[in-house]
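It is worth pausing here to work through a concrete case rather than discussing structure prediction in the abstract. The textbook approach is simple: state the sequence, then state the predicted structure, then interpret. We follow exactly that order.
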Amino acid sequence: MTQRVREKERNFKLSMAGIGTCCTTLSSTSFRTSPLEFESLTIRGGIFLGKPIRRRALRIRAEVSYVNADEAKKLIAVEGYTVLDVRDKSQFDRAHIKSCYHVPLFIENKDNDLGTIVKRTLHNNFSGLFFGLPFTKPNSEFVQSVKSKFQPGNKLLLVCQEGLRSTAAANKLEQAGFENVACIISGLQTVKPGTFDTVGTTELQDAGKAGLITIQGKISAVLGTVLVCAYLFITFFPDQAEKLFPPSS
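Step two, the predicted structure:
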């Protein structure tokens, strides 16, 4: 009887020692295995019980580089960046960097629903008339179009006229997995003539100018000349001026 009691005590001590060693080796608050991690651990009858922790896979996103025109020229010549122009077709046709690719972030809106017709009419009578801006809408196939031409690892220099569209386009491409994207700060309007080899009828910095604003200076010059001539005529030839412009009675 005494021998059986002693054997039970010895077995109990061994089992307790095993559990103690296990608990010392394994953290009571976190138990990592592969590929799971547990918040807590309970041992019952040799079975490990715990609540697994789900961890989100972390992805490191590359940052978009913003450069000036001279730095952009080096990216093209030295680091092998390809120029991607995201302006609308009208600005692209006026002037663009030679050998660049063109995928517009916005495309001309030719929808014919009533709301679009009203908006297009208002636009054409103001922004379109004075600044020559086309009535556009977001290009829903922009990212897909870029993916059809480039791989995510390609080095891309995005350009637009003021720098806003290229920034928006860079964010879209970054989210789509493109890792080497750069933009010109404030766009092509800051590029001095001769910085890049260009194609078009005007300089890159003037490609955004169209509509009545392009002849505003000429109109002002003509009106100014007419007023000066009228003043000189009245001053030096008052008699003739009085005949031409008799005072009202």
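Step three, interpretation. Residues 19-43 have pLDDT under 50 and may be disordered. The first strand starts at residue 31 and ends at 32.
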